[in-house]
Every structure is written in C-alpha cells, then in structure tokens.
Batch of 2 targets.
Target 1
Amino acid sequence: MQLIDGKTVSQAVKERVRDEIAHDGLKIGLAVVIVGNDQASRVYVNNKKKACEFCGITSYEYALPEETTEEQLLELVDTLNNDGKVNGILVQLPLPEHINEKKIIEHISPMKDVDAFHAVNVGRIMIGDYAFLPCTPAGVMELIHSTGTEIAGKECVVIGRSNIVGKPMAMLLLHENGTVTVCHSRTKNLAEVCRRADILVSAVGRAGFVTADMVKEGAVVIDVGMNRNAEGKLCGDVDFDGVAPKCSFITPVPGGVGPMTIAMLMENTLRAKKLQS
Ligand code: GUN
C-alpha cells in the first residue's frame, strides 16, 4: 500500500501556477467573498488567500456581515463581473439561509466562475469542452494521475452524487474512458458495487462509511470526506486502518484531497486570466 501525499502533489500544482505567472509576467486577481461568520468557511478563505500569495495572485477579500441582503450581494457580484482587475470570483458557500445560493452563482460571469458552479460551466463539463473544472474533482484527477494509474477501461465507482463533487467526478472519470458507476443513498448492494471498483472515490460525508469489505484488493481509494469522528478528530469517509492494507494507493485525511482543492482553484484562476486575455 502506498499513501498518496496530497501536500506534495498540491505543492507541485501551485509551483507550476506560480512559475507560469512569474514567467509570463501576468497580473491576476481573485475576489473571495464570504458572508457571515461560518468558522469552517473562515479557515477555507484564509487558506485560499495564502495560496494566492504563494502563486503571485492578488486576492481581494470581501467579508460581509450575516445580515447582507441578496440584493447587496448581487450588486457586489455585478461590480466584480465588470472589474478588469478581477479575473476570478469565488463566493464561499454556504451562504446565510436568506440568500438564494443558486441565484448568486448564476449571476457570476461564467468566464470568472473559478469554482465552475455556474450552469454554463457545468454544461460544458458534461460535453467535455471546458475551461474550468470544479476544484475538488479536478484535484482528485491529479491525485489519481500522480499514482501512474491508467483510468481507461477501469471500473470506477463514485459514492455520492452532489453537484459539487459526485456528479462532476463521474464525468471526469468518464472523459478519461473509465467505466463509471455512481452510488448514492438509494443504491442496492452498495458493498458489492464498490467491490467492483479499481478506482473508488468516496464523497459521502460520513466517518467510517467505507469499510474493508467494500474494497477490492489492489484498488486505488480516494477519500473526499471531511468529517469529525466521535473524538472530534478530522477524518474522511474511509475506515483508513481497515481499508489501507487492501489498497494499492489510498489518500489520507487530512493531507489527501483537501490541499488539492485550493491548488486547483489557483490553476482555475490562471485559466480565467488566459480566457479573458
Ligand atoms: N464551500 C465548501 N467548499 C467550497 C468550494 O469549493 N467553493 C466554494 N465557493 N465554497 C465552498
């Protein structure tokens, strides 16, 4: 069993982005909008700012109070859509209850939508003609590639069907000619389906969900989960100690998929700049 080191792979992606920006003398701006006081969001946003600094991207933070209205947020997005210094716009989710997330996302210019959450970008991913990939699935692809595993013809099983991870993840694996199955809460014989997987990606959000009996000997296992266990410790969906001995490669949590998401955001911001030039 080999551990896939997300820190090393993400560092390489960030260095690639940094070197290209420096080499081409690019001036790039990323607007990061956060509304309210969600603690996890605050940590994510700070990490995104740090990564920008590393890569030579200017970050513009807009930290708005919880009581910000939908109208005010739409106006800010308008302003950022029209600001030439801003190449990428990221509105950190979740937004407060009184704001319609979908409405805000659809208001972001698709050319600046570095999360690839806008329907136009989601549609482009579906047809395989895309500029941006959603950061987490794109990060998972980088991790799989880093193992040297060929995806074409392999049985790939994705657990979870969210718009942010599961669905685009399935598309990316399909674009690389994997044979893809998407499992979810209504899937029958889940363990049996998962046991078919040469490449198993879990994005469920439940600690200890993927157990050793669900994993084929020699599988590549990617854990997208970010959960707290009973002791409050950060852990993924996979029962790591039980599953790891069966895998050819496995990602740890933390230090697997997590660091990749931000690295891919940096790459998307560079792509946005090029798209707009
Ligand atoms: N909240 C949790 N993950 C993400 C993400 O990738 N993008 C945004 N905008 N919000 C998030």
Note: The CA atoms of residues 141 and 197 lie 16 Å apart.
Target 2
Amino acid sequence: MHVVHLYPREMSIYGDLGNTRTLAARIRRHGYSPVVHQHHPGGRFPEQAHLVLGGGGQDSGQVRVEADLEHISDRLRALARSGAPMLMICGMYQLFGNAFITVDGTRLPGLGILDVTTHGNAKRMIGPVVLTTELGDVVGYENHSGSTTLGAGQAPFGTVRAGFGNNGTDRTEGARTANVIGSYLHGPILPANPAIADHLIGLAAELATGRPFEPELLDDAIAHEARNRQVRRLVRR
Ligand code: GLN
C-alpha cells in the first residue's frame, strides 16, 4: 500500500509525523505491506498513491510548499476524485481549501478540494479538543490562528464538544468530502483515534488490491482508555 506524506520537513509539527508511523505500523499489523513515500518540494510525485497525508506547519512553512502544491495539484485532485483516502491536518487542511489569507493579508491559494476558506487572526485557538464524528468520538489538540469557514454544503469532519474547532463559533471542526478528511487536530490524531486510521487504511486497501479490506483484530485498549479519559476530563455531561 503506497502512502504519500506531503512535505514532512515543512509541514509536520506537533508530532504529525506520528500519523504516518501509525499508518505504516497498522497497515503491517493488518497483514499488508506499506511503502511510505516522502514528497518534498521539487520532488517527483510517486507513481502510485493509495493514501495521502499532510500535517500542520507555520505560516512560513505553508509559503514554502505553496509553489510545489500548485505543481502537483492536478494529480492530487485526480486522486481525490478517484476515491483515494486523504488526511490533511491543520496547515495542509487550510491549503486543501480554497485559500488561506494570513494575518498580514498574504493570500495563499489552496487546491479547493475542500470548500473551506481560512483567515489568519491575531488570537490563536489552542488546547485539547473532543469531537463527535461519524467515526465516533475523536480527541486531539489544536493550535491555529486560522479561522476556517465552511462553504454552503460542505460537511464538517465533526461537531465540537470541547475546544474551538474551525472558528470557535459554529461548533464545526474540519471538513470531509468523500474520502478526503481535513482537520485541525494534532495529537497526533491517528494513534489517539485508531478508528480513523483503520477507516483510511480500509479505503486504501480496497484501492490497492481491488478487494474488500480484511482487517486483523488489533488490541487498542490503551488508545481507547486514553481517549475516554480525555473525553471525561473535558466534556461536562
Ligand atoms: N499556520 C497555520 C495557522 O496558524 C497552521 C497552524 C498549524 O498547522 N498548526 O493557522
């Protein structure tokens, strides 16, 4: 299964690299073979891609990857259309939207795969998060100045139960279109929420093999306990 990590040098803060490691480890535990590609600015995008990942970064990191992202945009859009699962966190989530307008007014155009628009603010949204999503309760950690608005008809990734989410006002978090998920959640998100990892792996397995995903039963007791504790600590019932 070919996994492509976009811009691991520029866009991989708050442990987002852990998402790639989690996927590689779980793909192996499910009995498949992962091939992890790191895509750097100016590099050749891998021929095969069954799962694409991107992480968070400083505004300056986003500026550094912008030209390359434009260069590989047709390929990424085609992959998204063909159903390749993708997980874009924070800074890369913003760049998978229509645009990120930084706090000093610089407009970084995005891919428009997700119908979201982000404006940088002087105030940052920082702290632990709990979401309700179609994939169950999700926990993570956010740190962004960008305030994101969903276009009409754009589904969020989840509903905020604790934390700020896209903008601190409408209780939406992230965005989800077909198999593409964008989210502000670091943590990193996948080791803390193995259900999301397996959702992505299942889709990628079907794409890679042309057959239904055959998962192994994995022991995620520690991840579940950690997640439940974060939910109990942050959500008042
Ligand atoms: N630079 C962006 C912001 O502050 C993204 C931050 C991040 O990826 N953590 O909104």
Note: The first strand starts at residue 2 and ends at 6.
